[in-house]
Each structure stands twice: as C-alpha cells, then as structure tokens.
Amino acid sequence: MLSPSLRPCLRLVLAALLAAGAAAACAAAPRAPLVTMLDGDATLLRDGARYALAEGVRLQAGDLLMTAPGTRLLRVEFPGGLGVAFGPASRAMLAPDLGDDMRGGVYLLSGWAKLVAPSGVSGAIRSPLADTDTTAGALILSVQADGAQAFAESGPSRVQSRVPDAPAQALKSGEMLALPAGGARPVLSKGASQAFVQAMPRTFMDSLPSRLSAFPADVPPHRLGDMSYADAQPWIDAEAPLRRVFAERWRRLAADPQFRAGLVAGLKSHPEWTTVLSSPVRAPQAAASRY
Predict the structure, then answer these.
(1) Together in a domain, 88 and 168
(2) Residue 2 included in any domain
(3) For all residues of the chain together, what is the average pLDDT?
(4) What range does the domain containing 261 cover?
C-alpha cells in the first residue's frame, strides 16, 4: 500500500504526465489554415452567419470566403507551407469534401486564386470549369463568366477540364491553358496573354513570405449578422455536387421567410431544394450545424 506521505507527490506526477500528454497531442494534431494577409474587405460565411475576416482568423473545412471588388489580397496559409492568395471579387470554399470526384484544398467558384506549393508539397484548386494542381510550383487560376484560365507561373502543374472525357493537360513553367465556357476546346499557349496579365491582381506578382509565426494566438472573426439569401445564392445555384451539399447544409434556413422566398423564386436553378420546401416549416435552431 502506498504511504500517505507519498500520495500528494503521486498526484502531482500524474497531473504533470497528463498535462504533458495533452500538450503533445495538441502539438501533434494538424492545425487548420490561417488568414495571414488581408488588404481590403473579406467575408466569411459559417454556421448560417456572416463574419468579417481579419488577419489571424483560423479557418475550418467548409468555410466560404468572399472578397470585395476593391480587395487587393486575401492570403490563407496551410500547415506544411501551402499558401493560397485570392484577388478581388472572389468566392471560394475551403477544403471541400464533396465526394470522390471533388476533393481538394480550395474550390474557386469565381474570381482569382494563386496557389503556391513549396518543395515536396502538393496543392489543388477546384473550380466549375477545371480542376488544377501543382507540386512545388506556383499556379494562378482565374474563373470568370466567359471561362477559366490557368497559368503555371513556376514548376509543373496539371489542369483537368470538366468537359466529359477531356484528357488532363500538363503545364510547364510559363504555359497557360484557356478553358472557354460552354465546353469549347481548351487552348494551350506559351506565356500568359496580355489580357490575362492586365486583369491579374497586382499582388499576385509578388513573392510573399510566410507569416504563420506572426500569429501566436487565433483571432476570432467579428460576426456581422445572419447570412442572407443573396450571400448564399451563388453557392445554392452552383454545379450539382455543390447544390446537393448546400441543400442539406442549409435546409434549416428555409424557415426564414426572406431566405425561403429567394429559394422559391429561383427553384429552377436549384431543384434539390424541392423536397426541403415541401416539408413542414420549422423555426431555425439556436445551435448551428457543422457548417
């Protein structure tokens, strides 16, 4: 039997071991990506609410990011050294998990994104018109109403058009692939076009150092209010895999009269909501879902 005089010492030892184990577990767990640079306004959609992004905000899988038309740069850094920069008027989903055919670090719905992967690291940007990836390279993707353009600034990249049966296209440094909307044949060229360079955000021309170490503590995002139908509509009307995801994720928001009115008016663009709208209306719960 343990001596009574030794019991306090044993409790201290056990407490120290538990604390050390917890610290080791936290250190071993992968950390979520972080907003490390922001020049302008950017909004986060999460849990049915709108938040103002700021440097130091920790992001989650499924977060929706939106930059204002006048925003010069929003940069997100991932553990392992991967960095993604967004230009003005851009909409993106972080770390989507939308089925076997749509997995990647970022889904760019519209706008501009620049992916930079250090040596030995791979990254991917998905989009409505093409899926792209690079290893130890820098890749710029533009998604606009008239099509998409992928430019391999450095290192090897790969572009997979969403056109059925289209082969993947390898890009060497300095090559650009234009993917017109409507399924027309992609066009490969040496060097970026003059129109692409003129439209590209000026901040994409800079080589940006990592700023992860500048934020020892996470910064909470500032809540701006509830998410409106206008905020959600571009995602609700996106391609089919996304529409199915958001019909499930945001079904509780259909109880809001304004949100429901928008859903009903545009039902042809998102038929996945038919079942939700025909179900009995329930008041939104106080506790939000995962996304």
Answers:
(1) yes
(2) no
(3) 86
(4) 228-278
Distances, alpha carbon 148 to alpha carbons 30, 100, 101, 158, 243, in Å: 32, 23, 19, 14, 21
In a domain? residue 29:
no
CATH code for the domain of 178: 2.60.120.1440
Question: What angle, rounded to 10 degrees, do the helices at 257-265 and 229-236 form?
Answer: 40
Cα separation, 73 vs 42, whole angstroms: 9
Same domain? For 58 and 122 the reply is yes
Q: Is residue 132 located within the same domain as residue 173?
A: yes
Write out the two tokens for 279: 């179900």
Instruction: Please say whether the beta carbons of 280 and 260 come within 8 A.
Output: no
98 lies in the same domain as 59: yes
Report the SS3 class of residue 282: coil
Under 8 Å CB-to-CB from 253, ≥6 apart: which residues? 48, 227, 232, 259, 284
Residue in this structure with the two tokens 């030995």, named with its chain if needed: 120
Backbone phi, then psi, for 52, in 5-degree steps?
A: -85, 125
Residue 288 placed within a domain: no
CA distance 274 to 192: 44
CB 161 within 8 A of CB 129: yes
Are residues 123 and 206 located together in one domain of the fold? yes
Distance from the Cα of residue 23 to its chain's centroid: 29
pLDDT tens profile 46-104? 999 999 999 999 999 999 999 999 999 999 999 889 999 999 999 999 976 555 444 44
